[in-house]
Amino acid sequence: MRTFDFSPLYRATVGFDRVADLMDRALSADLAQPTYPPYNIEKTAENGYRISIAVAGFGSDELSVDLKDGALIVTGRKTEEVEDKTFLHRGIATRAFERRFALADHMKVTGASHEDGMLNIDLVREVPEALKPRRIEISGGKAVEAQPVETKSVEAKAAEPVQA
Q1: DSSP 8-state assignment for residue 14
Q2: DSSP secondary structure code for residue 18 in this structure
Q3: Owning domain of residue 102
Q4: CATH of the domain at 49
Q5: Is position 19 within any domain?
């Protein structure tokens, strides 16, 4: 397997250690990662996302969603069944699991719901005002305060063809 040395990145940058750690984990992860339970990640809006996890057989009280150190951790622990059942076929897996999702900066979990065997976790990216793009007006003599720029208008202008 190929390994990468990220030490030059650490020497030449400040504050990007989390990105390097994420890349290091992704490249060194075992290829046989667990596939249970299956999940989808979808984009629901410009800054909205949803993680949907198939958790058939689990009740809401047996599931846990935690946010710790920039990671979303979803765990499921099935309570012991007291009833004595005889299964002819048991195809619904109810084994314990833990799924981890690394979240980018400024990602916020807005809610979670459990319905029809699916655990849906909604996330939104909230970029602070200080990090949003600003346009600085150029005046003849005095400096003018920077005004917030609408991101859609900047993207739309960037997409317009340049006329010579």
Answers
A1: S
A2: H
A3: 35-81+91-127
A4: 2.60.40.790
A5: no
The Cα–Cα gap between 105 and 163 comes to 38
The DSSP secondary-structure symbol of 61 reads G
Residue 154 clears pLDDT 70, i.e. is over it: no
d(CA 107, CA 96): 27
- For the segment 7-46, what is each residue's pLDDT rounded down to a tens digit? 776 666 666 666 767 777 666 655 556 778 999 999 999 9
Tell me the three state secondary structure of residue 151: helix
Give the chain's domain count: 1
pTM exceeds cut of 0.70: no
Q: Is residue 136 in a domain?
A: no
How far apart, in whole angstroms, are the C-alpha atoms of residue 136 and residue 141? 14
- Residue 31 pLDDT: 54
Distances (CA, A) of 47 to 1, 99, 120, 124: 36, 23, 17, 6
